[in-house]
Amino acid sequence: MRLGLAFASALIAFPAAAHDSSAPLGGQEPLEHTHIADEIWDLLLPEAEASADITVQGNTRSIRANGYPIKSPGRFPNRNNPHAISKKNYSLKVPLNPRRTNRATSAQGSVFGIAINGVVMDPGTAEFWQNDRRSGWNYEALGGACKLGLDKYNAHVQPDGTYHYHGIPTGVVASSGGRSVPAMIGYAADGFPVYGQYGYSDPAGKSSMKKLKSSYRIKSGTRPDGPGGSYNGKFTQDWAFVSGAGDLDQCNGRFAVTPEYPDGTYHYVLTDTFPFIPRCWMGQPDASFTRLKGRGQRRGDVEMEQISPTIDFATMTDNSEAAGHLIQVQGGQPPRVRPGGPPPQRGQRGQRGPRQGGGGQGRRAPCSGS
Which terminus in the chain has less CB density within 10 A, N or C? Predict the structure, then answer.
């Protein structure tokens, strides 16, 4: 069996000046709204040279891609992202018949998966409070505090030229539909498929469509350290998983019937609220994905054991005593934390200079506020 995707040219979309990410989904609506500026931009840009090839070999699904989108991306470099896109040579693989394990594995700091157009999904950022990773407070790309130069497809470029998604890849979803039937977007690193935010209301069979909701909610109260202030969603650590609050589990997944899997399958769902792209896997991620960033688990991350029904998101990224206590109160197991040392105090001397993934040396940090 062979599934192939080869693209020699693509439609071109003009990026909104304010990095608009509200392009309509497919279904009964037009796939995309056009503007006279789009046609002018089409004449100026060369055709996209995207390629993605997905093949099945035995019990493995192999994915080869160059990381360039089917539809031409926004303009890069831009004011808030100084990096140019460079083509990659991805050679990835996932199990053809993935299996759920008895624990969720943190995907923080890793590439979560890849879309059917060959562009990777990488929800995490390199932006931290006071530009210090050790603080434990990681800014969200779509949290409202950072200007990272995202284009209309919720993507931008890393310093090494990697074009990647931080949220729903609106161009892929529009091309695949999305509201009339569940739209398959790609594959996670553990082999389970990834779908858009609309799914069957009855997971057991084909039924009316509904917008699936994440089960993460913003914590109440104030942050115990770091930036302080009330939790408001600007940081990853502002969120907590609340079992039953939505349609999806802690890895933003569920078991349901889809057009590609009429008997049902566990699959991940991308949502327009946190976590946007899942932050953990329910299966075993293939090493071909974990090697993409060339590093293992980051300092301050937590080895995840079996996940309890209600658990704080801090189990993946936060090592504070308050987080561990909250988890135990909710009935979960205390996290096992890798040593990372105490976070720096506000205004502490010897602090590192500005550093942020969307910029470069000598530039101001793109995130502000708490």
Answer: N
